[in-house]
Design a protein that fits this description.
Keywords: Cytoplasm, Molybdenum cofactor biosynthesis, Transferase. It is found in: Cytoplasm. Required for formate dehydrogenase (FDH) activity. Acts as a sulfur carrier protein that transfers sulfur from IscS to the molybdenum cofactor prior to its insertion into FDH. GO terms for molecular function: sulfur carrier activity; sulfurtransferase activity. The protein has about 280 residues and is of the alpha/beta class. It folds into 2 domains: about 30-135, Ubiquitin-like (UB roll) (Roll); about 140-275, Cytidine Deaminase, domain 2 (3-Layer(aba) Sandwich). About 25% of the residues lie in helices and about 35% in strands. A 6-stranded mixed sheet has the order 9-8-10-11-12-13, sandwiched between helices. Helix 2 packs parallel to helix 7. It starts with a strand and ends with a strand.
Length: about 280
C-alpha cells in the first residue's frame, strides 16, 4: 500500500532569515477504477481506503446500490516483474467485479459525469439525472438533530484528521449519528474522494441507506457532494463553508437537509430546516 505522506526539503523564508528544513506533504497518486476489467475512471487520490473509495464512487454514480452488488474488489497486477519474476500489485489500479444480475456501467461514467461545467450537462439535466438514478433518497427520513449537536461536529472532525494535522493539505469527511457520535472519518486530497471513502465504509458495513446520519465535510457544499449524500440516503449534509446554488436546488428537490457556514455556534440551514431542532 502506498504512503500517505512524503518528506521534501523546503526553503522556509521569513522577514528575518531563510532556513532549509524538511517538510511533510500529503501524497497524491492516481487510482484507476475498473469494472469487470473495463477502465471507468481515474481519480487523483491519497492512498488508503481505496476499496472503500471505489465502492463509494460506484454507489454514488448509480452503478451499484448495495453490498451484494459487488462480488470482489482486487488490485490489478502490474506489467513489470519484481525480483522473483512475478508481476506485483501496483496498488494504483482496482478492478471491481459486479454480481451477475448488476448491469455494467455506461462507459461514459467518469468522476465528472454529473458535475463538470464543461461536460455539456445543464443544471436541470444534472438534477434530473440524480433524481432518476437515486435508490436511497432521504426525503422520507424522519431523523432530527439538535443545533447544539451540529455545532459540536467540526471540532470532532478536526481532532480526527490526523494526516491534516501533519500536512495541512487534506480534505476531511465524517459520518455521525444524530446524537453526534462518530461513525467513520476519512481524509483525502480530493473532497469527493473523502466522501466516497466514507460512503464505501458504510457499504462495507451494510449500512446503506444511511438513514439517521449527518455527513460533515471540511470545505464547501458542492453539487457533487450533495449528489453523493442523496445517493447514499443521508438525510443531513453539513459543511463548514458555502454551498453552491445547484447544491441547494438538489437538496431541496431531494428532501435533504443542507447546512452550511457551520462555524462556532451559528449555521445557515438552506433546506428542510424541520430536521434541525433547538
Amino acid at each position: 500500500m502506498g504512503r500517505v505522506t512524503a518528506r521534501r526539503r523546503v526553503q522556509h523564508v521569513t522577514a528575518e532569515n531563510t532556513v532549509a528544513r524538511p517538510d511533510t506533504l500529503v501524497v497524491e497518486e492516481p487510482l484507476e477504477i475498473r469494472v469487470d476489467g473495463t477502465p471507468i475512471t481515474v481519480t487523483m487520490r491519497t492512498p488508503g481506503s481505496d476499496i472503500e473509495l471505489a465502492q463509494g464512487f460506484l454507489l454514488t454514480e448509480g452503478v451499484i446500490a448495495r453490498r451484494e452488488d459487488v462480488l470482489t474488489v482486487r488490485y490489478c497486477k502490474g506489467t513489470t516483474p519484481d525480483e522473483s519474476g512475478v508481476a506485483a500489485n501496483t496498488y494504483n489500479v482496482l478492478d471491481v467485479t459486479l454480481a451477475p444480475d448488476v448491469a455494467p456501467p455506461d462507459v461514459d461514467v467518469t468522476r465528472n459525469f454529473y458535475t463538470t461545467s464543461s461536460c455539456g450537462v445543464c443544471g436541470k439535466a444534472s438534477l434530473e439525472a440524480v433524481q432518476l438514478s437515486s435508490k436511497h433518497g432521504p426525503g422520507d427520513d424522519p431523523s432530527t438533530v439538535t443545533a447544539e449537536t451540529l455545532t459540536s461536529l467540526p471540532a470532532l472532525l478536526r481532532d480526527a484528521q490526523k494526516v491534516f494535522a501533519a500536512t495541512g493539505g487534506l480534505h476531511g469527511a465524517a459520518l455521525f449519528d444524530t446524537g453526534g457520535a462518530i461513525l467513520a472519518v476519512r481524509e483525502d486530497i480530493g473532497r469527493h474522494n473523502a466522501v466516497d471513502k466514507v460512503i464505501g465504509w458504510a457499504l462495507e458495513h451494510d449500512r446503506i441507506p444511511l438513514g439517521g446520519t449527518v455527513l460533515l465535510v471540511s470545505g464547501r457544499a458542492s453539487f457533487e457532494l450533495t449528489q453523493k449524500a442523496v445517493m447514499a440516503g443521508i438525510p443531513v449534509l453539513a459543511a463548514v463553508s458555502a454551498p453552491s446554488s445547484l447544491a441547494v436546488d438538489l437538496a431541496s428537490q431531494s428532501g435533504l437537509t443542507l447546512v452550511a457556514f457551520l462555524r462556532g455556534d451559528s449555521m445557515n440551514v438552506y433546506t428542510r430546516p424541520d430536521r434541525v431542532v433547538r
